Amino acid sequence: MASSASISGLSSGLDTASLVSQFMQLEAVPQTRLKARVTTEQKVVTALQTLNTKAALVGSKAASLAKPATWDAVTASVSTTGTTPSGVSVSADSTTAGPGRFSVTVTAVAQTHQLGFTSAAALTDTVTGGSTKVTIDRFDGTPVQIDTGDGTLKGLVAAINDSANNTGLRATPVKSADGYRLIVESVATGAASDFTITAEDGSALLGGATVRAGADARIDLGSGIVATSTTNTFADLTPGVTVTLSDDAVVGSTSTVTVKQDVSKISAAIADLVASANSLISEIDTQTANSATAGASGVLAGDAMSRNLRTSVLSTLFSAVGSTTLAKVGIQSDRTGKITFDTNAFATAYAKDPAGTEALFTAGATAEQNGFAARLEKVAKAASDSTTGTITTSIASRRSGVDRLQDSIDAWDVRLAQRKETLERQFTALETALNQMNQQSSWLSGQISSLPSYS
């Protein structure tokens, strides 16, 4: 809305522009209070969002620890008698592997099939006979022919190694005293990797070849149990357990493979959950601090929902049924209202009773039988659920309130603009009237002074 022109103090000598500004400051006091409330509410929303994020993180970590599958975590190791490494390694899949122990004696490692040709030649010598093609027989179907281009040793090596020919072989020329000798080996290992290479007419290349036959890897597990593999990897040798031999594994060496529950991994997950829960508690304490005790009030001071959440988090330390305490597995609360975790106490309890210890954390058959992690998951998700969480709904409510306050502020902008226009119009009218009066006074004075004087 356009404002009226203002003539500041033209006739009155008053700084009417300053007067209008001061009047408007008084008029704007209600709007200023609304703006202050918006700022405060926005700080509250920010604090609630921080709580929501921390609660959601607690819920996520608790949900993982509440699953029995998480407690199936295993670790696999290999021990070998003597000081020489056996070349045996092991990995375990926690979803399928279970505790176990067995010995592995290496009786053979997997090898490629290799041909070492007898005759030496220069790289530019023709070595394929009367044709530029050679025949490769992998004994798994019809022999295939590849074209070397020019029939030279260099062309033969290039054709074998060309990925477009898909030979499954690799060729290497090795320099000797009288030229280059050719070595060709299979890319894959195993007894079934054998092959031959001949000229197109079936005659031998380069004087024939010495053969090193491909071989399967073989290990002896004892009691007459032998396992073989075309590679040096024995996948799922036992359910979820894979044993791998290095290329230089010591034939004849015996190793012991041990698969056991990974207590350290579970303990670390519990410690991480406790740390996240304590971070949430600390955030609540900071944001709900009262000036009478903390020196400065938090933005959520007096917020019952936040304090109830803190109480609910700590209440998860206690089971809904029975008198079982978490202290024996290392979980307690301290004097400051934080949760503590003793890893040594947990390790001792788990070693003594793995199933019973797990039950104190995981989901039970009923909600009343839920363990610590399951109870904490329920509390955290009740607070942070994206649609029904108590923090989520509080944030939505506060945002709606901010929107309403902002609407009121916008309405006050219009109202104040109108009020300013009215004041400026009134002062302008005042100055105009005073100016007219001054002009009339000057005219009258002139008229009076022009009258004749009589003695």
UniProtKB/TrEMBL annotation:
Keywords: Bacterial flagellum, Cell projection, Cilium, Coiled coil, Flagellum, Secreted. GO terms for cellular component: bacterial-type flagellum filament cap; bacterial-type flagellum hook; extracellular region. It holds the Pfam family FliD_C. It is found in: Secreted; Bacterial flagellum. Residues 12-113 form the Flagellar hook-associated protein 2 N-terminal domain. Residues 215-439 form the Flagellar hook-associated protein 2 C-terminal domain. One of its GO terms (biological process) is cell adhesion. It comes from the Bacteria. Its main location: secreted. Homopentamer. Belongs to the FliD family. Required for morphogenesis and for the elongation of the flagellar filament by facilitating polymerization of the flagellin monomers at the tip of growing filament. Forms a capping structure, which prevents flagellin subunits (transported through the central channel of the flagellum) from leaking out without polymerization at the distal end. This is Flagellar hook-associated protein 2. It comes from Nocardioides flavescens. The lineage of its organism: Bacteria, Bacillati, Actinomycetota, Actinomycetes, Propionibacteriales.
